[in-house]
Specification:
121 residues; mainly beta; seven-stranded mixed sheet; four-stranded antiparallel sheet
């Protein structure tokens, strides 16, 4: 049975950091392009970052480049998103997802239930 379980969300002040985790069961991380989407209140879901299954390269949305880092632990079968210098605009529910390319919602096969990140003073 496939499961993607996110953790690590919470409330953080602007400029702070959080690390999100996504524990995966039912497939190996290399089997799919895997990464993170987010959805802010009143906005569409957007792709944040992913690791491509084809060559292991990484993608970052322009809004998070230089602040977020995606990584994976193949031994633990867990995906991470290290988020630094957080801004109020980063407030959203963050979803772990796995699927194909391009990194768009329609190309995803599996989704986690999400974890809420709130950036506020």
């Amino acid at each position: 049975q496939v499961q993607l379980v996110e953790s690590g969300g919470g409330l953080v002040h602007p400029g702070g950091s959080l690390r999100l985790s996504c524990a995966v069961s039912g497939f190996f991380l290399d089997d799919y392009t895997i990464g993170w989407f987010r959805q802010a209140p009143g906005k569409e879901r957007e792709g944040v970052s992913c690791i491509m299954s084809s060559d292991g390269s990484t993608y970052y949305a322009d809004s998070v480049k230089g602040r977020f880092t995606i990584s994976r632990d193949k031994f633990k079968n867990t995906l991470y998103l290290q988020m630094t210098n957080l801004e109020p605009e980063d407030t959203a529910v963050y979803y772990c997802a796995a699927g194909g390319e391009p990194w768009e919602s329609y190309a995803m096969d599996y989704w986690g239930k999400g974890t809420l990140v709130t950036v506020s003073s």
